[in-house]
Specification:
By secondary structure, the protein is an alpha/beta fold. Helices cover 16% and strands 30% of the residues. The strands form nine sheets. An eight-stranded parallel beta sheet has the order 30-28-27-26-25-34-33-32, covered by helices on one side. The chain has a six-stranded antiparallel beta sheet with strand order 3-2-4-10-7-8, with no helix packed on it. The protein starts with 39 loop residues before the first strand and ends in a 10-residue tail after the last helix.
Length: 622
């Protein structure tokens, strides 16, 4: 495709990385760092696109080129156009299967497409996926031509908040704390060549108390009916674990059957922590009839997140068996030029580098699921993650709940579902399905410590039963069942939002079974001239006229409100937020990431002091 037909449509703000975007190979990095195999083929780049009414049943004449994987509404897509609920978005491109893939299965992967994606290869429908935040894959082997070019088409339907499915912070008419919607492909698209029987997924669950890791491996479901597949008694998996600090490097090699749990010893494990984010390498070789048919490389960490009583009897967050205080920013993952999609992997990593530089040890991924590489960066850099599930339910119900919360009313959420915008069983089922896909996608990520299914009541339903379900599926994590507003006395934390700087913990300790977290606070607002999304609009909580005034307020928040609460059992605090987002000017950085409103060393010194109140091994002067 001719790259001259595409150009960036400037947004009100742009990041410095926009100029580094390569229209031939945008985001070229391997997209799945915890499940790496060769060979693969990146399909990012320029695709043809068209927008039509929903009455159109096949792709119309292309209207131009769009740069995948940037969403339609973004500047970097080269289109910057809103998709409306009564429209379809169509994509098309051609691809050639490499010659040495001829005897392989061809798997087509999508990192994420918002919201409903129907996929066609050479004019035939090969599959459909609903869910805007999670990956999906299709075996297209029987649809491709191995000797000539193939045509890939994707039809996208995205009703945004009108559909009441999980949409996060997207509104068709952005306002307040809600932002520009995104539609279509927004993560990497890629092809992979595999054997008839291949490793489909695996679970790795660290158990530091017994110095072991629990592993289970699954093959592709299609192979189970084949004599050469997963049911073959001669098929098994060879697992090799490596420790780069050991002289011999390889510390364990074991063999096990598919779909069988095995405990593997990790003697004297090197534990993962924010100050020492140590990772073990692990590889899987699938063997069928004495022949290796698939190889996958991955990694895991030996770490433990738990809630245990402190010396006063208050339940407190523990990391690896020791009390640990978490402090970090809210991170919504929005970009002025790419919206949901960072311009480059370097940009994706930058926000986390600033988070670490400011002395934070965790990050709350707010109402969004990121590409797998984002979590990989958290794993390798040492940032604990609180992972939100994107909420749904629609716009009006969020506003209703805001009023009820202000009146201190906490309605039941296990009936009268219409009240939260989830009256249809199908909408509730969609939420549960997308939640399951998110947890499955992120099961092996070492840095995720806490699942957050609901935020501030919008789209909240069946909190108790969903919390119990997450416990059974979510691996070695804790649960913040309802972040802010409607606490249903379940999950591991009483989770409080306070933007009025009035937070306190009552004495004696409030709970021996649930911890306490200040899961949103601050939101200090300071718009920086020439770095504003819309000079005529602004939203924030407490507003300041200078960086000094804001720094003084931050000092007061941490020293006068957070510090005393730590001694009473506070387990963590989340400051709103790492960057400005559109008209919300309460970031530590401006939306374009060009201005830091706080000196990192100022924040780091303050945060180290807070962390050292709980962790006696933390050096506050480091």
């Amino acid at each position: 495709m001719d790259s001259q037909e595409w150009k960036v449509i400037p947004a009100p703000l742009m990041t410095k990385w926009a100029d580094e975007v390569d229209s031939e190979t945008p985001l070229p990095e391997y997209p799945r760092p915890q499940m790496v195999r060769d060979p693969w083929l990146n399909l990012n780049g320029l695709w043809e696109y068209a927008v039509s009414s929903k009455k159109i049943t096949s792709m119309p004449t292309p209207q131009g080129k769009i740069l995948v994987p940037f969403p339609l509404e973004s500047a970097l897509s080269g289109v910057s156009r809103q998709l409306y609920p009564k429209e379809f978005l169509w994509y098309r491109r051609s691809f050639q299967i490499p010659k040495d893939w001829k005897k392989k299965r061809i798997i087509l992967h999508f990192g994420a497409v918002d919201w409903e994606a129907t996929v066609f290869v050479n004019g035939k429908e090969v599959g459909m996926h609903r869910g805007g935040y999670t990956p999906f894959s299709l075996d297209i082997s029987s649809f491709v031509d191995y000797d000539s070019p193939n045509v890939l088409q994707v039809k996208v339907y995205d009703p945004s908040e009108k559909g009441r499915q999980p949409t996060g912070k997207q509104w068709l008419k952005p306002a307040l704390v809600f932002y520009t919607t995104i539609s279509g492909i927004w993560q990497t698209v890629w092809l992979e060549a595999v054997s008839d029987t291949y490793i489909h997924h695996f679970h790795m669950t660290p158990q530091i108390d017994t110095e072991q890791v629990l592993v289970k491996v699954w093959a592709n479901p299609e192979s189970k009916g084949s004599e050469m597949g997963a049911n073959n008694p001669k098929s098994h998996v060879k697992i090799t674990i490596s420790d780069k600090n050991q002289v011999s490097n390889i510390i364990s090699t074991v063999e096990t059957q598919l779909e069988t749990e095995i405990l593997i010893d990790i003697p004297s494990p090197h534990l993962w922590s924010p100050e020492d984010p140590y990772l073990y390498d692990i590889s899987f070789a699938l063997i069928v009839d004495n022949k290796v048919v698939d190889n996958v490389d991955s990694y895991f960490a030996m770490r433990k997140f738990s809630l245990e009583p402190d010396s006063k009897g208050q339940a407190r967050f523990h990391l690896n068996g020791s009390p640990f205080f978490m402090i970090g920013p809210l991170d919504q993952g929005y970009w002025p030029d790419g919206l949901y999609t960072a311009p480059t992997d370097k940009a994706l990593r930058y926000d986390l580098e600033i988070t670490k530089k400011c002395g934070y040890n965790m990050v709350r991924k707010h109402i969004k699921v990121e590409p797998a590489r984002w979590y990989h960066h958290c794993d390798t850099m040492g940032l604990i993650v609180w992972q939100d599930m994107p909420n749904g339910g629609g716009k009006s119900f969020f506003l209703h709940n805001a009023i009820l919360n202000a009146l201190h009313f906490n309605p039941p959420d296990d009936r009268r579902y219409w009240f939260t915008g989830l009256g249809k069983q199908s909408i509730r089922d969609i939420f549960r399905q997308e939640l399951a896909e998110m947890i499955d996608m992120l099961y092996n990520v070492p840095s995720i410590a806490i699942w957050v299914p609901f935020n501030e009541a919008w789209g909240q339903f069946d909190t108790v039963s969903i919390t119990e379900w997450i416990k059974s599926r979510g691996g070695s994590r804790l649960i913040d069942s309802a972040s802010g507003w409607y606490d249903k006395k379940c999950g591991n934390f009483r989770s409080i939002h306070d933007y009025m700087d009035k937070f306190t913990i009552k004495v004696p300790p409030t709970s021996t079974s649930r911890g306490i977290v200040l899961s949103e606070c601050g939101g200090y607002t300071y718009p920086v001239e020439h770095h504003r999304w819309d000079p005529k609009k602004k939203f924030g909580y407490k507003k300041f006229k200078s960086e000094k005034d804001m720094a003084d307020a931050y000092t007061n928040l941490m020293e006068q409100i957070v510090a005393p609460a730590i001694s009473q059992g506070l387990s963590g605090v989340v400051y709103t937020q790492i960057t400005d987002v559109e008209i919300e000017y309460n970031g530590i950085m401006t939306y374009d990431r060009k201005i830091l409103k706080f000196k990192p060393e100022f924040l780091a010194k303050m945060h180290r002091k807070l962390i050292s109140q709980v962790d006696p091994h933390h050096n506050p002067t480091k």
